[in-house]
Design a protein that fits this description.
Layout lengths: L19 E3 L19 E3 L15 H11 L3 H23 L1 H40 L1
Helix pairs in contact: 2-3
């Protein structure tokens, strides 16, 4: 956590510490007076009257954050690329390769037949159990 990110400070006195650089911008640090930073000739920025000659430059933490935001997250790129290539390959084969399409849908029909046969066996077993229960209760 950087100094500019602090939110619960009531008192801040950094005077006479030989600090150098730009005072970080933050919600609470901007509320302190110039006396909190006096006798630090290397400091610049608000609330001091000393302007920073290098206002375009970022603090090391800000530079690091900016670099992290610009960095490409290759895990996501590779996952998306793999998905697109895999899906595109299957779609292309189904659309443009007749032999692949026939084999693919043939396998789908075999799997479908297996599920139908399993379902029919379960129904027969359930009906047989129901018939046995009826015979016992009569």
């Amino acid at each position: 956590m950087g100094l500019g990110e602090l939110t619960l400070l009531e008192v801040l006195n950094l005077s006479y510490n030989k600090l150098v650089g730009m005072i970080p911008k933050g919600r609470q640090i901007q509320t302190f007076s110039a006396e909190s930073f006096e006798r630090n000739p290397g400091l610049c920025g608000f609330p001091l009257n000393t302007n920073c000659s290098h206002t375009d430059e970022l603090s090391p933490r800000e530079q690091e954050d900016a670099e992290e935001k610009r960095e490409i997250e290759w895990e996501y790129v590779s996952a998306a690329l793999g998905y697109v290539v895999g899906f595109g390959s299957i779609a292309w084969l189904l659309l443009f390769c007749r032999s692949f399409r026939e084999k693919y849908f043939g396998k789908i029909e075999v799997v479908e037949d297996i599920f139908i046969a399993r379902d029919m066996r379960r129904r027969r077993a359930r009906m047989a159990a129901t018939a046995r229960n009826r015979v016992r209760t009569q």
